[in-house]
Amino acid sequence: MRKNAGILSAISLVLFIMISSPCFTEEEPRVISALEGQIPSDAIILFDGKDLSEWTETDGKPSKWIVSNGTMTVNDGGIVTKKEFGDMQLHLEFATPAPAKGEGQDRGNSGVYIHGMYEVQVLDSYGNKTYIDGMCGAVYQQYPPLVNASRPPGKWQVYDIIFRAPVFDKKGGMTEKPTLTVLHNGVLIQNNVEINGPTAGAIRENESPAGPIVMQDHSHPVKYRNIWIREL
Ligand code: MG
Predict the structure, then answer these.
(1) Domain map of the chain by residue range?
(2) Of 154, 120, 124, which is closest to residue 137 (Cα–Cα)?
(3) Spacing, Cα 109 to ligand 1 middle (Å)
(4) Global confidence as pTM
(5) N or C, which end of the chain has less CB nearby within 10 Å?
(6) What's the CA gap between 47 and 59, in Å, rounded?
(7) Rounded distance from Cα 144 to ligand 1 centre (Å)
(8) Residue 136 CA, ligand 1 centroid: distance in Å
(9) 41-231 CATH fold
(10) How far is the CA of 111 from the centre of ligand 1 (A)?
(11) What is the DSSP letter of 3?
(12) Calpha distance 155→126 (Å, rounded)
């Protein structure tokens, strides 16, 4: 009996040490600088107010969006990044037109398509009713935002989007759906939702581990600034 009790306490001690110690194999996190008012040092700049060098039209021609005063404004067709990304943290800022014009989906409509196929809706949803899974911050026609954190038209607003790309097995079958988390003006509006296939207006059909970012032209002069991405 006494021998068994000794073994049991030895096992308990080992378990206690394992549970209470940090993971043995964990690497020291990489150091990046994230200074106040600056983008993270490991971010890729997609638009810093100067030019559209990271973008083309969705057919590959030069973009005609208007760059002025550090912003770019929707003009004559959607645009797509030249680079592709897998898992990501994406930051962008937008302002819908002021004074507001139109109603419902016809008011300050644009959007950001992750992988060119999953739209996080951009819309003037400040006192503007529409179907809830088409509001600002909706994963278009899949998930309405958890809350409406919209600012008035003309005011700068922020999206911080965390995206995990779909995972595939060796035969190309999807084993994990893509997921999205979105903060709108610092407020959580999509909480790790599983995306169920491409949304309307996707420029690609087949889901894959990587894809570009597309900004939608919905015929409204929505402005963007300060767009950057971190590959995860
Ligand atoms: Mg849209």
Answers:
(1) 41-231
(2) 120
(3) 5
(4) 0.89
(5) N
(6) 19
(7) 13
(8) 8
(9) Jelly Rolls (2.60.120)
(10) 4
(11) H
(12) 11
